[in-house]
Amino acid sequence: MPAHLITRRPGADRRSSKRAGRLRAAALGTAFVAVLTPVLSACGGDSAASSGGSTLKWTSSYFPTHWDPVVGGSGAQFRELALAYASLTRTDESGKAVPDLAKSWEYNGRGDEITFHLRSGLKFSDGEPVDGAAVKAAVERAQKQKNSALFGDLTSIESVDADGLDAVLHLSQVDYQIPQLLGQRVLQIASPKAAKNPGKLDQNPVGAGPFVVTQVIPGTKALLKKNPDYWDAKNIHIDNVELSSAPDASTVVSGLRTGVYNFADLDPSQASAAKKAGLDVFVQPGFNASNLSLNVNKAPFDNDKVVDAVRHAVNREEFVDKLTFGYGEVTDQPFPKGYEAYDPESEDAYPYDPAKSKKLLAEAGYKSGDIKLNLVVPAEDPQAEIVQSQLAKAGIKVTIKIDKNWATPFFAKDLTFSLYGTTGRDSAAQTLTAHFGPDGPLNLSTPYEPDGFEAAIAKVRETPLDAPDYTRVLQAATRAGLESKALVFTYSQPNLIAKSKSISDLPKNPAHIDWTGVTISGAN
Length: 524
Known about the structure:
- The protein has 524 residues and is α+β, with helices and mostly antiparallel strands.
- It has helices at residues 18-27, 69-72, 78-81, 132-144, 178-181, 192-195, 198-201, 249-257, 271-276, 304-313, 316-323, 354-363, 382-393, 407-411, 428-436, 453-461, 470-481; strands at residues 55-60, 86-87, 89-91, 97-99, 102-107, 113-118, 157-163, 166-171, 188-189, 211-217, 221-226, 240-245, 263-265, 280-284, 289-294, 329-330, 372-377, 397-402, 417-422, 487-489, 491-492, 495-499.
């Protein structure tokens, strides 16, 4: 679906340099480019740590390129934006939607209208009220703002009515996925007053989250302090946050060891050093999935036997061993095993078998070496080298091409062969649609979609999340999507984190970083 607290690989949701962060924005249709400006301060430029108290010193590979959640989109940096912004719902440890700014919600009898009831007395950090009008403004801005990266996620919402603390969403179809969808990834809500100047908001965030941004140095550092007006402030035990852009992966551990940082996402290659340094190293649950993206509208992938040959040429264990140091997992689906959307019936449908790949290519009329492919990626990538080596064993010659503007041809569906990876979505239906739908941003073969997928995903949306047959219906949609010839899933990169032992354990909310209940003891 980032991406990730993950690895430096192609993809709008992946762990990345600032350049890849810009690729994420471009990939989602974002035309806005942040301009480096002098230090901005919402509260006089005071250092967050100057007031004392416990300080989280987080260095992140996803330091926000954009602080406007509409522009930032649902890529991996939503975790950092969640420091300053709250949403209608949030995700619990089971992956289900639970109240956040909204205390409750209910659908009408037909399932094509949902009313969210907001908590009373809440306000944004600029003093504006958090109410139905703020929700209406947030949805409409996400749908209509020129550089919005979220409009494609909100196609089920036809209109919004505001009535005091209520926001009534009128849907274009029956869709019981809305509470899952409108969480921290897709609808972090900004002050409507501040959002009237999106350019300023983009580097000076104004939300209703657990912390208030006091200073931003674009692309480098942000200082935040606890928000006393946050609805769950009593369970936020961190007083200050120093968020910085991560340095080279090889220097993160030394920074953690010396106390420059006390929390960081970690490259798997550094896990052993982090453990030896006495740091807590753990994997935060997630929905990460990497894939080979094929364009079936272009030769040679317009031949089904060639697609199947590629499927059987992939050795997923090699990706895990060489890229994740054993912390990742093989996957042939966009979901991890154990998640309710994972389809056991589809597991290992195309096992590694290079001999079978050669046979399929011969049946398609190709001799070894006849097929020559350009694998287009945005930067040097060991994942690409593994693909090149594996396909060579099947008789397919792959040349790796680096295109720094890769996002433009990828999302224009102009490429024949590429790589991608995401952190998923809180709504499983949205993850499936993004990958397999005819207009899915991650479907390189648009407008192609597998037979039966449209009906299967419609059935998911029409099924209440608490219905007895919901899991069965959801897995059937996954099964239909996996008939797609446009994607070959390979492995799941771990959300690997290292922290000081002074920081208590985090909630295990999949794909999220939640600071509720987390404490920091001793000196920082």
